[in-house]
Amino acid sequence: SIWNALTLAYFGSGGQTQKELEEVLRVEGKVETLKMWRTLEFLYNVRQANKSDYTFNLANRAYFDLDVDLRPCVADILTSELRRVNFKEPDQAASEINEFVSNTTKGRIPLLVTPDQVSRASMVLANAAYFKGTWLYQFKPSQTKKDLFYETLEDYHRVPMMRQKGNFRHGVSEELGCHILELPYTGEAVSMYILLPPFISGENGFNRMVERINGTLLHMAFENMWRTQVEVFIPKFKLEQTVENELIMALNRMGISDLFDRRHANLTTFSPTADLSVGKSIHKAALEISEEGTEAAAATALISFRIARPAAPEQFKCNHPFLYVIYDNAAKNILFMGAYKNPKATS
């Protein structure tokens, strides 16, 4: 979701702003990026039209105030994304944005922005995504029992823990310092991958894994897995989270700064005259993991571990912090990604 919102900004960027976005987004030119954008859009639209085994909705909108003098080419390029609104009527503008997000996420995220947040806006770049899939091998509700989850080696909570024994793809990433398990959804086009560092490594092991992670290492790890008989334990949970200006701070640390600085932002590909920059960010995510499967939604507005291949583990027990990735196996595309660390932040 965040990547899509930033890519919208990238299409309108120039100069140093464009260079920073290209570096962080790892894209090489607007034409190629737009082709990839449209190819993925077409792929998911075709799958949904053919009634695939899962539901995945992805939509983007670029809302510009009526006073912004847009270049004519913007409407030609962002044919389905461009919307003109009157931010001087913030109630109506916020309602239109929230309706778009709510419809895309099937009501999981009914409110992304408030009238006050858009009342002084010239531009809102919004993305919404929704996924719902059922496990290929479902967990039996009768097997879900209360069990311990260790937030740290000292702090623990009792959580509902789903469990089942089966033949699953498992792997080890030496580079990331974790074991990986694939839980496929019906149809097997999409899977959830769980990245679990060793229990004994504690918080440092989890943090090291997060610091090292990138697309190349993930793809390589997912391709180097093997089937094995294993008993899986994973918490059943719901997650709803809102991240606002902390997102801008994180993107600053990654190397995107000009976009959020009114003095330096260059979005002149959108408009040669308007003083456009991103002053606020809002990202909301909702996820539910249950015995039947997963429902996830997200929306964004931009305002040393070396081991040989181990013997197959008897258990893959997610009783300490882990990462989860909902991954399109066919398109090799990450749909959602998150961490389960603190059960008190979920329900």
TrEMBL record:
Protein name: Serpin6-like-2 protein
Stated family: Belongs to the serpin family.
This protein's GO CC annotations: extracellular space
Domain spans labelled Serpin: 1-343
Keyword line: Glycoprotein, Protease inhibitor, Secreted, Serine protease inhibitor, Signal
InterPro entries reported for this sequence: Serpin_CS, Serpin_dom, Serpin_fam, Serpin_sf, Serpin_sf_1, Serpin_sf_2
Superkingdom of the source species: Eukaryota
Pfam families: Serpin
